[in-house]
Amino acid sequence: MSVLDLARPEIRTLQPYSSARMEAAGGQIMLNANESAWAPNGDGGLGCNRYPDPQPDALLQALAELYGVRRDQLFVGRGSDEAIDLLVRAFCRAGEDAILIQPPTFGMYAVSARIQNAAVLEVPLSRDFNLDVPALLAAITPAVKLVFLCTPNNPSGKSISREDIERVAQALAGKAVLVVDEAYVEFSGQRSVADLINRYEHLAVLRTLSKAWALAGARIGSLLASPEVIALIRRIMPPYPLPLPCVAAAMAELSPSGRAEARENIAIVREQRGMMHTALSQLPGVREVLLSDANFLAVRFDDAGTVYRQLLQAGIVVRDIRRYPFLQDALRITIGTPEENARVLAVLNETMLNKGWA
């Protein structure tokens, strides 16, 4: 059985849109796309009067090398969100098929499914945020076409072991596509499972330049999967998903100097994460600081609402995650610069003192 047998049959036979840029190979005078012949003011040589390549060669080459895959195993889009949306549309028939998620988890899996009118099945993580593999596998039905695993998990920060991921991949062969979201993997000691794509054609991996690579504003995300899945996704992608300024920003970050700076910043985040975990754990009013492999910490408070408001009043915005299962007393705090982290601790200390929690 091919992984494409899991996809929507009408998508497999769809005639994809052929953009003007796809048909422009070898051209010098470009008169086929109704573009302006003049570059805009302040263009800086980017050529923004022209449509961009749908999948730029240089960017594909750089990301394929970074992630250890072949170019035909890579799709690049507007953040991981676009890849999630395209996967749901490619594999889930509206009103018939479903995805499976493990709350608490990233919210866009369910949002994309509901936009497509696909059902959302839930198998919660355990109270200590471990994946319940037997429960997950028992919940698989013929309607489930996509299973999403988020590791390190957002919002808890806990990783799923490589062994558990491979157990799920083995069990889902011929049944569903396993999508492993590794948005935060650079901050973890656990290596990517992208190398398993060659072993499991139904495995897909999501990566992003938004976190460790400091390009959240550029929206560059990747889907790593078998060539068959990538070709299917490219059939339904928008004509021009990658703006030229965003591609330029990504290429600069992926240069040798950009990579060196990213490695330095990742090391700072890891060091500061340990420091913040220790410091926060010692504060009165803090019930628990969850161990994290990501660039944030989920922190349980005696009065999370008051702490949130006090931080906001001091100009510090953290994420209120009390709506998530097992996190009804928690806030998620991103690891910032050493100066920002010191400010967070100062405000929290002052809050605890003023409230008489010290």
From TrEMBL:
It comes from the Bacteria. It is an enzyme of class 2 (transferase). Its cofactor is pyridoxal 5'-phosphate. This is Histidinol-phosphate aminotransferase. Homodimer. One of its GO terms (molecular function) is histidinol-phosphate transaminase activity. The keyword Transferase applies. The keyword Amino-acid biosynthesis applies. Pfam families: Aminotran_1_2 (PF00155). Pathway: Amino-acid biosynthesis; L-histidine biosynthesis; L-histidine from 5-phospho-alpha-D-ribose 1-diphosphate: step 7/9. PROSITE patterns: AA_TRANSFER_CLASS_2. Keywords: Amino-acid biosynthesis, Aminotransferase, Histidine biosynthesis, Pyridoxal phosphate, Transferase. Its EC number is 2.6.1.9. Belongs to the class-II pyridoxal-phosphate-dependent aminotransferase family. Histidinol-phosphate aminotransferase subfamily. The gene is hisC. HAMAP family: HisC_aminotrans_2. It catalyses: L-histidinol phosphate + 2-oxoglutarate = 3-(imidazol-4-yl)-2-oxopropyl phosphate + L-glutamate. The modification N6-(pyridoxal phosphate)lysine is found at K211. Residues 47-347 form the Aminotransferase class I/classII large domain.
